[in-house]
Amino acid sequence: MTTWDPAPDEKRERPGGKAVVVVVAVLLVLVGGGYVAAHALAGDKVPRGTTISGVDVGGLSRSAAISTLEEAFESRETQPIDVTVKASLAGSEANGSALKPSELGLSVDYPASVDAAGAGSSWSPGRQWDYFAGGGDVDAVVDVDESLLDTRLDELSKGLGTAPKDGQVTFSADGVRTVDPVRGDAVDRDAAREALTEAFLTEDDAVSLEVVKSDPDIDAADVARAVEEFADPAMAHPVTLVFGDSDVSLSPRQFAKALSMEPEDGVLVPVVDEAVLTTLVKGVTTDGEPVDATVRIAKGKPRIVPAKPGVEFDPAQVAEVFTGLLTGDEGERSGKVDAEVTEADFTTQDARDLKIVEKISEFTTRYPHADYRNINIGRAAKLVDGTLLKPGEEFSLNGIVGERTAENGFTEGYVISNGILKKDLGGGVSQMATTTFNAMFFAGLKDIQHKPHSFYIDRYPVGREATVAWPTVDLRFENDSEYGVLVRAWVEPSNFSRQGTVTVQMWSTKVWDIDSRTSNRYAYVPPATRTLTTADCESFTGYSGFQIDVTRIFRKHGQSAVDHTEKFHTVYTPADSVVCKKPGPPPEQDPDEG
Fold it and tell me: pLDDT tens, 185-194?
């Protein structure tokens, strides 16, 4: 017998199956509708039956609950709390003060308090359940200004014990130093915060606190950790900041003053003073145009003054790069800084290549006391001092010193004009010219222009001296060597008991050993006598003029053979005597004339 079994998709569903589906669907619709209605009813309201620090806000919308809480706490925020702090030893005095919560650094965060109590719209089943079945008393959320609270507690604890002292780590040019922590007496901050917050929320008008033995926040272990993890590594090696093609290397002795360690959450954290670091960087760079390298004399030796690139940089970014390098190992303490850099035309290496390594000449002259000489010679020396001549460059005394004016720092003194003495601004500067000429002479540099005084002044080397006058009469010479030449000049002023001195040095690499030979004086010419009736007449006793020759002898440095010689011929005119007379009366007029 064959039995027919229909295919699954041809089987008919039993009548009861459809009914079950319909019933389930209807129930889901009814439940869903109720859930939606419950959500709509709860909204963003605070769960029913809720109080916040005793203030009933149950069933209120979020905004209404915030307003209600603000109104209720308005009186509490202005109600002082009597805070008493006493020492732990019996019989000790206590300090106290009535302080408003705001003066203690306490305030209620109303939105956060309402949210913490369960306000806020949500489709979460738990939220719906909390609204209808939740509730209860919760504490308001209190914000505490820890710094202000600490200040108040310190004030109230004053005189009731010795405050604990945190351990410290400090930096100096000599390295890392530590200060040991000290145990002391203090109010327990956590207990005080809790007690004061509770008094604020419960409207308690009095709180009693006690000063007890207390450990500092930064103890010996914190100090040791700070030294090991930061301080010692930071001060171990230089840090190099790279600006374009220029490296700015800062030694620990330099950047120590930019470092500190401050307490934060119970540990010491590194702090880099951005302003101090910026000052250090600007000390080896410039904000504008770059500065060429040069050479100066320090402690009796030539020193290279490095070039300074012109750099524009972000101090915050420099501080960030610098800080990141401080704990690196040697060889890993160099970092590139984003900056706009303009390099100097004359670099540090160019300065080194000048080979200014030794003193090649020095000459000193003396002058009798006069205030105007101290002022004028001193001013000229200051302007000449530090002049750097590269190979082939020319020195001009007038070009360096400038016009002798009051604005340029000069005063009136005696000068020689047209063969006689008279007063004018800059008198005495020829002393600087003569001293510089002799320093040039013995350095073996090339004479370009020099003019001896018209008549001889006996405090100068005869035949080896020079005068100047703005702007026509100048002292000029050339650095005809392959090395740089640095000119140093200074004055030791005169006073009533001693003469003044002016000294000029030349520094370079020595090429020549120079000797000088002076002939006898010859071709004497006796002085004349002038009688003057002008108001600026100065009496003077004259002396004869003469001629003289000076020979400069060149030998290559360290050799005895003469390489060549140079002759300087000088003609001194007589220094005429000057007799000053008052002008006589005008001649009488013949009454018949006119």
Answer: 888 888 888 8
Between CA 443 and CA 479 the distance in angstroms is: 10
**CB proximity list for 312: less than 8 A, separation 6 or greater:** 287, 339, 340
Rounded-to-integer distance, Cα 529 and Cα 420, Å = 11
Burial code of 167-199, b = ≥16 C-beta within 10 A, e = fewer? bbbebeeeebebeebeeebbbeeeebbebbbeb
Q: List the structure tokens of 182.
A: 């000290």
DSSP state of 362: E
pLDDT band at 204 (very low <50, low <70, confident <90, very high): confident
CB atoms within 10 A of CB 20: 9
Contacts of 319 (CB under 8 A, 6+ apart): 272, 274, 277, 278
Q: Contact at 8 Å (CB) between 507 and 356?
A: yes
CB burial of 526-555 (b: ≥16 within 10 Å; e: otherwise) equals: ebeeeeeeeeebeebebbbbbbbebebeeb
Helix (H) or strand (E) holding 375: helix 371-384
Per-residue confidence band for 508, with pLDDT thresholds at 50, 70 and 90: very high
- The amino acid occupying position 339 is A
Other CB atoms within 10 A of residue 484 CB = 25
pTM as predicted: 0.55
| Amino acid identity at 222 | D
For the record, the structure tokens of 318 come out as 């420099």
How far apart (Å, rounded) are the C-alpha atoms in residues 294 and 507? 13
Token pair for 565: 């010689």
- Which amino acid is located at 267 in the chain? V
How long a stretch of residues is the chain? 594
CA-CA distances (angstroms) from residue 431 to 373, 385, 452, 510?
9, 15, 11, 26
Domains of the chain: residue spans and CATH: 50-214 (no CATH), 221-350 (3.10.20), 358-580 (no CATH)
| CA-closest candidate to residue 467, choices 438, 434, 445, 441 | 434
Token pair in block for residue 92: 């000790």
**Which amino acid is present at 43?**
G
* The two three-digit tokens of residue 25, written as one number: 């669907």
Nearest partner of 376 among 447, 462, 470, 453, judged by Cα: 470
Q: How far apart are CA 437 and CA 533, in angstroms?
A: 37
Find out whether 499 and 369 touch, Cβ atoms under 8 Å. Answer: yes
Mapped onto helix, strand or coil, the DSSP state of residue 38 is helix
- Cα dihedral across residues 343, 344, 345, 348: positive or negative: negative
Terminal C-alpha separation, the chain: 184
Give every CB contact of residue 516 below 8 A, 6+ residues apart in sequence: 441, 442, 464, 550, 551, 552, 553
Which residues have CB under 8 Å from 492's CB, separation 6+? Answer: 500, 501, 502, 503
**Cβ–Cβ under 8 Å, residues 302 and 486:** yes
Secondary structure (DSSP) of 153-185: HHHHHTTSSPPPB--EEEEETTEEEEE--B-EE
Percent of residues in the chain assigned helix, strand, coil, to nearest 5: 30, 35, 35
At 52, the pLDDT band (50, 70, 90 cuts) reads: confident
The dihedrals phi and psi of 69, each to the nearest 5 degrees, come to: -65, -45
Neighbours of 212 (CB within 10 A): 13
Distance CA 524, CA 502 (A): 31
